[in-house]
Automatic annotation (TrEMBL):
Keywords: ATP-binding, Cell membrane, Membrane, Nucleotide-binding, Translocase, Transport
Listed name of the protein: ABC transporter related
Source species: Halomicrobium mukohataei (strain ATCC 700874 / DSM 12286 / JCM 9738 / NCIMB 13541)
Domain called ABC transporter: residue spans: 2-233
SMART domains for this protein: AAA
Amino acid sequence: MIEASGLAYRYEDGTTAVDGVDLTIEAGERVALLGPNGAGKSTLLLLLGGLLPPDDGSVRYFGTDQPGDAVRDRLGVLTQDPGEYLFNPTVREDIEYGPAQLGLSAAEADRRVAELAERFDLEHLLDRPPFRLSGGEQRRAAIASVLSVDPDVLLLDEPLSNVDGNNEAELLDLLDELSADGVTIVTSTPDTDLVAAVADRVVLLGRDGRVVATGSTREVLTDTDRLREAGLAPPTVVELFDRAGFEDLPVRVEEAVERLRRQ
């Protein structure tokens, strides 16, 4: 779906944000870009989404060298602040915006709005200004707006930041549903406790904007020494079982509960 080769990006002051990243995203994968603050995760996500031009390297989409409108329409990018994506007077108009840019008929746009509003529990919010929504409601509305163009790849930058517990659980369920529907999902986060819930593969970035490790979620999250070297604390459940002397460390709470029951 996405092939990045030698990606590099430097800020205007000369600071290197991303340095020589090679990365391939396969269809249907759930990948986490994991790293401490300042590791270039958000910049890398924007590079992968075609919203920033790299200083060095290249990105190929779906085996095509030239992005073009057809390729861009298959990518959905959601930044940390959902307010950057919600700019119309109402939630309904924000969800309609993508289909309108694709030139879809009013009937098809209405169908997509109705479908997404039901899926994301937004029916009662469609005529409300986005700025009057709660953090979780804004996240749902922003994701619905991204999905209104029916993308094949969804790039999410810290999707659960500033979201309370109840809304976090709902959003995680929604991401599971999207993955089950075949959407390829790339999530940027500094939160090791979140990774196992959103990814099957992890790309670990260091503070210098380089990839320091890549592998399955279990491989990366249970390598506690490497995580600490990268400036991250291991997931709480991993650290707890590691300190208790367990082998074959669990990475999810449900897995840990089952281990304790068997014990």
